[in-house]
Amino acid sequence: MKLIIGASGGVGQGLLTAWEQSQRVATYHQHHPAEPAGQSHLRWLPCNVLQPGWADDLLDAVGPDLPETIVLCTGLLHDADHQPEKSITRFDRDWFARSVATNTQPFGELAATVTTRARRDQAVTLAVISAKVGSISDNKLGGWYSYRASKAALNMLVRTTAIEWRHRLPQSTLLSLHPGTTDSRLSAPFQKRLPEGQLHSPDYTGQRLAQLIDNAQPKDSGDFLSWDGSLLPW
Ligand SMILES: NC(=O)c1ccc[n+]([C@@H]2O[C@H](COP(=O)([O-])OP(=O)(O)OC[C@H]3O[C@@H](n4cnc5c(N)ncnc54)[C@H](OP(=O)(O)O)[C@@H]3O)[C@@H](O)[C@H]2O)c1
Fold first, then answer.
1. pLDDT per residue over 80-97, tens digit each?
2. pLDDT tens digits along 142-158
3. How many CB atoms lie within 10 A of CB 185?
4. What is the CATH number of domain 2-226?
5. Distance from residue 137's CA to the centre of ligand 1 (Å)
6. What distance in Å separates the CA atoms of residue 132 and residue 233, rounded to the nearest whole number?
7. How far away, in angstroms, is 57 Cα from ligand 1 center?
8. Domain ranges in the chain?
9. Partners of 121 in the β-ladder
10. Which of 74, 98, 102, 105 to mutate to test the pocket of ligand 1 (most atoms within 8 A of CB)?
């Protein structure tokens, strides 16, 4: 069974479609999706990753068995009052804290819960949607301070947990994935100046990420991968 957290967003929706033949549990927060007709192997659950204990509550609601694939697709780049900072002079402690609370902490909480619940002989794949702009060495453009920092910290949590899993859950795999620029509410304000062909549909992104996740092996655990399968620098 596949658990997609943040399936009401563009990337999550793409994964839901890519895996439409599989048993899926999908979560939403503020945007309750219309139930597609005839999808009996899809169950929607509400989930707010800012709620203390959310990961335990969600896995309890999913059922007694840990899903073999879990993907965390939630994220925050802007809201009605905040755009990504172009200058450090726009740094705002509350926005920074909210970016980390939404983009970084939920993975830590989910990974802790999965680590506690998984059996040593179990093969779980836990993937989180990160972003290439979270790469420190690839950062040539600057800007987007809170978002970049929250994704860099997320990548560190993934890498560090993967090292622990080598001993603790050697059959399981952790991935940090860059989805590529995907048409969604999150990317909508930044799509105008994109070169032709650089904006992927959610379905295309979903297909590419699903392929990476389905083919992932424990030897890949802790990798930071782009949608095309290339390894990204930290
Ligand atoms: N789109 C891109 O070009 C792009 C590029 C690089 C990285 N990413 C990353 O990809 C991931 C998905 O982004 P997207 O483009 O699909 O964005 P999106 O369409 O805005 O979706 C964001 C998802 O996060 C959920 N969410 C937000 N806050 C939440 C909360 N407190 N509790 C639970 N769920 C919450 C939303 O749920 P509701 O809508 O139901 O509230 C939605 O399902 C993010 O981590 C983003 O940083 C996207």
1. 999 999 999 999 999 999
2. 999 999 999 999 999 99
3. 12
4. 3.40.50.720
5. 24
6. 9
7. 20
8. 2-226
9. none
10. 74
